[in-house]
Write a structure and sequence with these properties.
662 residues; alpha+beta; 22% strand
Length: 662
């Protein structure tokens, strides 16, 4: 029995030792596997963090490009000189506070550097041969282009250029707006994004060109990355994917590859296998020598803690993602969003509100709502006001009051009331309505005036026919009756009697011609446009004594009858206004072809008037209507005591319209 007990003891000891050895072996092997998986997971998480950080940086820089692009492609922006100070102020404001941006600059359609952020004027540099400029010109698309990394001319580092095209309203290519990213600053931003040991971070373009890395790889920048062929095995649709690789020096590496959403850029984080197991080797010896039970207990506790930490990490990531979506939604809304608490203090102020009120969110957050309301309306709002739509007045930082269309909503957050307003500036809408009302009023007045003028013209023609031509024809009829009676009675007649009747006939014909000329000068039908204006100038001097100087160097371009009639009537109406109102002694009429347009200018030296005030006269409205009918622009420049200048600008395509000339 003792032997059997010993056998059982040996067996139990063997089993115990075997169990201990197996437990320690499995424990160490399990710890090794966990360390490898943990390192791989850390590398993947680090890659995801770098991808997200890089996406935010490139999205920010692309938003800067889009902001400049959209601003310069508005009707106001297309009128700006790309090399002017206004555009430079725009560039400076867009890159303020962006450390990684070296410069924000503009290239014209020929690739010349014409404007840039900063205090100094840009150098006269031609960048037409850069890859991003050629790609934008060849592709002709309104999208983002990322150029190849370039070494700075002062050999202080590298630059990556992001570019977007600038187009005119008609789609014509005007130039390129470019953000130059300082890659040295860009790389240093990732120096702190490391874990327990250094994992090299690399950034590639879609063709495998390495444009940034940490630690810095000077000799490889701008070149095809050696590891790129292996990295191509990753799935481009996967957020982060790992692939094993052996470096040129034989070091086994694991690369975690990430893809930037919306950008042709990939990010990799390299993990050295030998570095992964350093911590495991340091832990394995104490575990093998120390108490196995304590080690197993510690391993169980560690496993429990890892599970808790993993759960906490998952919850944190979900919370950050939800917060990011919320912030992105609020910041991307085009309307202003302002929220206040029960104390009427601002708690939310999105970028559109910053732009609308001219104030920064950091400056107004926590401030009273009265800061945004005109003084006469303060104290009338309450966070418990009924939700819905309303029209209110806002106050900009410069003291300007402007109308707002507001959509109000109430909510309870943390047991406290919050009022949120979605605001829209309706200043332009109100101005457009006022202008439309003014135009309608002018059109009604023009219609009434035209009706009155038509009736007056009919009365005048009737009076001319009755009083002048009618009397002449009556006299001629009496003379013919007298002549017929003489001939019937056989009485002699003289040549003088016939000549007198011929003179009466000539006078009647002259009256007919005069009436017809007043309705439409014959020079418009029988002669050219230049002679028609010459006749009008002579007629003006004959009836008013006002000297009219003509400078018609490009009058030969007016070949179209509709255009000639419209321009003639505009000159006729303008000279009539001068004779009636200007008290002028001289008028200059010029017609030239400049800037791809036919320009008619009428300048007098009279008393002038305030052109900034709305005129109720029909003359200017009539001239504007004639300009609109031929697709021309009409400008009036006049100041009291300084004369008046009228300009009619007919684009070349309108002056040479085949539909009118046909």
């Amino acid at each position: 029995m003792v032997q059997g007990s010993g056998r059982y003891v040996k067996l139990l000891a063997t089993l115990t030792i075997s169990a201990i050895l197996l437990s320690v072996g499995f424990l160490l092997w399990g710890l090794r596997d966990r360390e490898m998986n943990h390192a791989r997971m850390e590398t993947a998480n680090l890659t995801q963090m770098v991808v997200q950080q890089t996406e935010r940086q490139f999205e920010t820089m692309d938003l800067v490009l889009k902001g400049v692009q959209e601003r310069l492609q508005t009707p106001f922006g297309t009128q700006q000189d790309l090399s002017g100070q206004t555009v430079r102020l725009l560039l400076n404001s867009r890159v303020a506070g962006m450390r990684q941006v070296r410069s924000l600059f503009l290239l014209d359609a020929q690739g010349r550097l014409i404007n840039a952020s900063g205090t100094n004027a840009p150098a006269s540099t031609n960048l037409a041969e850069t890859d991003y400029f050629r790609r934008l010109v060849q592709r002709g698309a309104d999208g983002l282009v990322i150029g190849r990394p370039l070494r700075n001319s002062d050999d202080t580092g590298w630059t990556l250029n992001l570019a977007r095209p600038l187009l005119a309203e008609n789609g014509r290519f005007r130039g390129v707006v470019v953000v130059a990213v300082d890659l040295t600053t860009f790389e240093k931003m990732y120096s702190v994004v490391q874990l327990d040991y250094v994992r090299p971070i690399a950034f590639y373009l879609s063709d495998g060109t390495l444009f940034a890395s940490w630690p810095h790889r000077e000799s490889a920048l701008g070149q095809f990355a050696p590891e790129w062929g292996k990295l191509l095995e990753t799935d481009p649709t996967s957020a982060v994917q790992a692939v094993d690789h052996v470096a040129e020096d034989g070091t086994p590496l694991t690369y975690a590859m990430g893809h930037l959403a919306g950008f042709p850029i990939r990010v990799s984080v390299a993990d050295d296998a030998s570095q992964r197991l350093v911590a495991w080797r340091e832990t394995a010896w104490p575990i093998g020598i120390g108490a196995l039970l304590v080690s197993v207990f510690t391993a169980l506790v560690a496993t429990y803690l890892v599970g808790k930490l993993r759960l906490k990490h998952q919850l944190t990531m979900a919370l950050n993602a939800a917060d990011e979506r919320y912030q992105h939604t609020v910041n991307s809304v085009m309307d202003a969003i302002v929220a206040v608490d029960e104390a009427m203090r601002i708690v939310l102020f999105n970028p559109s509100a910053e732009k609308m009120f001219g104030r920064k969110a950091v400056a107004v957050t926590g401030q009273p709502l009265d800061l945004l309301i005109p003084s006469g309306l303060r104290g009338m709002e309450s966070p418990r006001a009924a939700a819905g739509n309303a029209e209110i007045m806002g106050l900009r930082s410069d003291g300007t009051e402007f109308p707002l269309e507001a959509t109000l909503s109430r909510s309870v957050i943390g047991g406290k009331m919050q009022m949120t307003a979605v605001l829209r500036d309706v200043s332009e809408h109100r101005a457009a309505e006022a202008e439309l009302r003014l135009v309608n009023t002018q059109l009604r007045e023009l219609s009434a005036s035209l009706q009155s003028v038509r009736e007056e013209e009919r009365k005048r023609i009737s009076r001319e026919l009755h009083d002048d031509l009618g009397q002449q024809l009556t006299g001629l009829k009496l003379s013919l009756s007298w002549l017929g009676s003489r001939l019937k009675d056989g009485k002699p007649t003289t040549v003088k009697d016939v000549d007198e009747m011929r003179h009466q006939m000539d006078a009647a014909i002259g009256s007919v011609r005069r009436i017809a000329t007043e309705l439409r000068p014959r020079v418009l039908d029988d002669l050219d446009f230049r002679e028609a204006l010459s006749w009008q100038a002579q007629d003006m001097f004959k009836h008013s004594g006002i000297q009219v100087d003509l400078h018609l160097q490009d009058a030969d371009r007016v070949q179209d009858d509709i255009l000639a009639t419209a321009l003639f009537r505009i000159v006729q109406e303008a000279l009539t206004n001068v004779a009636r109102h200007a008290q002028a002694s001289k008028v200059e009429v010029s017609l030239g072809f400049r800037d791809n347009a036919l320009l008619l200018s009428i300048q007098d030296n009279g008393c002038g008037f305030d052109s900034g005030r709305a005129s109720r006269g029909i003359g200017l409205v009539s001239m504007r209507e004639r300009c609109a009918a031929i697709g021309a622009g009409f400008v009036v420049r006049s100041y009291a005591g300084e004369g008046t200048r009228l300009e009619v600008r007919v684009p070349a395509e309108e002056a040479e319209s085949p539909q009118r000339n046909a």
